[in-house]
């Protein structure tokens, strides 16, 4: 079976199905949860057939496994967790488990024995333990190839440092004008003159356009539409069962992956030639940046590897940021006072600029209040569920043994909504970020933490603030369906896509020239 171009080339580090998106895609911590107590280990449910459970008990007879049950073979707790995510009751689901078993419990999700860990100390452990690696779905491995997510050792260090460099504030300063240009174009085309718009798909389109314009420059111009559709297909397939039968999601994803790869490979080779002839500089696009680093000996990635990482970066970047923009707009529809304060901040920044001057890094650095509102949005609706890892050897956490090959999982929402760390946690209150130092480490983790913390956080902050600058100055909006809820798939999605009624606020004197 021809799975994918990437699959022919390389070994896969591991192929456990985690059933999630990029599960992708902070020190001196004292554990805040109580130590494990015998009475917390309530009677294990006898859902798993006796022989299986006996096998397991025999295999790990000398282990002190965490309390909890692995449930039915293969299914385990997957269905009940998925149901909780879909109905947006996952916080309660985690709380029920924590109440029953304590902050460390075993279960089985998405085909693997998994240890759920709760609390800031658990976050710290998962983010920084060297014996844990990113959990990957087989589908993601096949579709995306040998990206940073699958690397280890020196290769991982090299790629991580290259990607971090490309997404660093110094680089964002150089390409922020492209974000500005894409936001203005997007608003002119999709928002101006419309009475209602659907925010979720538009935000996705906007963040896709921004990241593809920053990473590939004009190279994808004529192919942008097709590329966006192919990426949608790829993301859908990343969550599917990896069986290559015609017309399945996975099969369509494979075809999309081949088309994306073909286009990006061509652009990469063109850039390689231009770079060798001194016709482009390292800040021009992602490929030239990576080729320039290679020529300095910083890494030794092939063009094929660079293409794999470009695909990963694009996927990691656009889905998550679009969730943040969508939920910011959703929140602001119900918070006129907060919206007014944001508008004042943005008008102040606009006052000293010409109508067509793009926003600069300095401008964005002054959008402090707007970013607090964005952080509060990420606290209450994290763009990613949390972090999944897989153990590379038997490990120990708080006296419990976790066997090699098991998954560990921490959910962001568990600390984000914990009243021990955030007063009145269900209240939307951006002022809690006035003093960042008042938030204990590893409690607010929308971008993860430790050595694998999101390298795209500055990129995400900048594009979100640029988008908010133009949207809040130009429009006011109301939710078409006041009670519209949201479900969590790989990322949170408003059930109807968040249709809003738009009202134009002021003459668009800063619209795209
Ligand atoms: C609001 C927007 C974003 C959020 C909330 C977010 C969140 C995260 C989180 C939580 C992780 C770590 C997951 C883990 O530890 O399991 C992560 C990793 C990652 N993110 Fe982001 N992210 C965002 C935007 C971006 C953007 C814009 C980019 C790129 C342009 C990006 C690129 C990456 C990459 C490459 C990784 C993997 C890092 C590694 O493997 O070491 N992210 N992200």
Order of helices and strands: HHHHEEHEHHHEHHHHHHHHEEEEHHEEEE
Percent in strands:
5-15%
Strand order of the largest sheet: 1-2-8-5-3
CATH architecture verdict of the domain at 61-138 and 384-445 = 2-Layer Sandwich
Q: Helical percent range?
A: 40-55%
Give a quick account of the main beta sheet: strands, pairing sense, barrel closure: 5 strands, mixed
Give the N-terminus to C-terminus distance in angstroms: 52 Å
The assigned structural class equals alpha+beta
Low-confidence stretches: 1-46, 508-513
Family: Belongs to the cytochrome P450 family.
Protein name: Cytochrome P450
Organism: Oryza punctata
Binding site for heme: 454
Key attributes of the depicted protein:
about 525 residues, alpha+beta, 5-stranded mixed β-sheet, 3-stranded antiparallel β-sheet, 12 strands, disordered N terminus, disordered C terminus, binds protoporphyrin IX containing FE
In short:
By secondary structure, the protein is an alpha+beta fold. It has helices spanning 5-9, 50-59, 78-86, 90-101, 120-128, 138-144, 153-166, 169-190, 199-216, 224-238, 249-276, 286-295, 303-333, 336-351, 361-365, 368-380, 412-416, 457-474, and strands spanning 104-109, 112-117, 132-134, 196-198, 386-391, 395-397, 400-402, 407-411, 475-479, 486-488, 492-494, 499-504.
Provide structural commentary.
The chain has 513 residues and is α+β, with helices and mostly antiparallel strands. It has a domain at 61-138 and 384-445: Uridine Diphospho-n-acetylenolpyruvylglucosamine Reductase, domain 2 (2-Layer Sandwich), CATH 3.30.43.20. The chain has 18 helices and twelve strands. The strands form four sheets. Strands 1-2-8-5-3 form a five-stranded mixed sheet, with helices on both faces. The chain has a three-stranded antiparallel sheet with strand order 4-12-9. A two-stranded antiparallel sheet has the order 6-7. A hairpin with a 3-residue loop joins strand 10 (486-488) and strand 11. Helix 13 (303-333) packs across helix 16 (368-380) and helix 14 crosses helix 18 (457-474). The longest helix has 31 residues, at 303-333. The radius of gyration is 23 Å and the shape is globular. It starts with a helix and ends in a 9-residue tail after the last strand. 46% of the residues are buried. Residues 23-25, 148-149, 160, 163, 167, 211, 313, 316-317, 320-321, 324, 383-384, 387, 446-448, 452, 454-456, 459-460 line the site of protoporphyrin IX containing FE. Residues 30-45 have a biased composition (Low complexity). Belongs to the cytochrome P450 family. One of its GO terms (molecular function) is heme binding. Heme binds at residue 454.
């Amino acid at each position: 079976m021809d799975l994918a171009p990437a699959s022919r080339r390389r070994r896969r580090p591991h192929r456990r199905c985690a059933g999630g998106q990029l599960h992708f895609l902070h020190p001196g911590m004292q554990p805040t949860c109580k130590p494990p107590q015998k009475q917390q280990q309530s009677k294990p449910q006898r859902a798993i057939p006796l022989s299986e459970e006996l096998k397991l008990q025999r295999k790990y007879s000398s282990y002190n496994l965490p309390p909890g049950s692995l449930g039915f073979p293969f299914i385990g707790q997957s269905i009940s967790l998925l149901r909780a995510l879909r109905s947006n009751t996952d916080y309660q689901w985690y709380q029920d488990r924590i109440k029953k078993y304590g902050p460390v419990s075993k279960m089985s999700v998405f085909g693997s024995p998994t240890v759920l860990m709760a609390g800031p100390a658990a976050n710290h452990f998962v983010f920084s333990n060297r014996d844990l690696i990113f959990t990957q779905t087989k589908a993601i491995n096949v579709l995306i190839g040998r990206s940073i997510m699958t690397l280890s050792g020196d290769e991982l260090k090299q790629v991580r440092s290259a990607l971090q460099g490309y997404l660093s504030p110094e680089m964002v300063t150089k390409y922020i004008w492209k974000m500005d240009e894409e936001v203005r174009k997007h608003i002119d085309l999709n928002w101006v003159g419309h009475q209602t718009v659907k925010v979720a798909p538009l935000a996705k389109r906007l963040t896709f356009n921004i990241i593809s314009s920053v990473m590939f420059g004009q190279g994808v111009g004529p192919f942008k539409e097709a590329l966006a559709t192919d990426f949608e297909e790829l993301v859908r397939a990343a969550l599917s069962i990896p069986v290559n039968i015609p017309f399945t999601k996975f099969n369509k994803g494979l075809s999309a992956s081949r088309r994306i790869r073909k286009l990006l490979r061509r652009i990469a080779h063109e850039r390689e030639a231009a770079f060798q002839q001194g016709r482009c500089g390292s800040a021009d696009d992602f490929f030239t940046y990576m080729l320039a680093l290679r020529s300095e000996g910083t890494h030794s990635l092939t063009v094929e590897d660079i293409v794999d990482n470009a695909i990963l970066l694009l996927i990691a970047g656009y889905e998550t940021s679009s969730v943040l923009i969508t939920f910011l707009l959703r929140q602001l529809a119900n918070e006129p006072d907060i919206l007014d304060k944001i508008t004042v901040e943005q008008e102040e920044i606009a006052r000293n600029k010409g109508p067509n001057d793009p926003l600069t890094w300095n401008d964005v650095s002054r959008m402090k209040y707007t970013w607090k509102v964005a952080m509060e949005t990420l606290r209450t609706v994290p763009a990613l569920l949390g972090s999944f890892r897989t153990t590379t050897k038997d490990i120990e956490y708080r006296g419990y043994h976790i066997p090699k090959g098991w998954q560990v999982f921490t959910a962001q929402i568990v600390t984000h909504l914990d009243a021990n760390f955030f007063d009145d946690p269900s209240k939307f209150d951006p002022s809690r970020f006035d003093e960042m130092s008042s938030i204990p480490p590893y409690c607010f983790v929308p971008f993860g933490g430790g050595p694998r913390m999101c390298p795209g956080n500055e990129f995400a902050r900048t594009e979100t603030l640029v988008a908010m600058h133009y949207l809040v100055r130009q429009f006011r909006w109301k939710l078409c369906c006041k009670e519209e809820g949201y479900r969590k798939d790989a990322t949170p999605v408003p059930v109807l896509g968040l249709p809003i009624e738009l009202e134009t606020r002021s003459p668009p004197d800063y619209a795209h020239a």
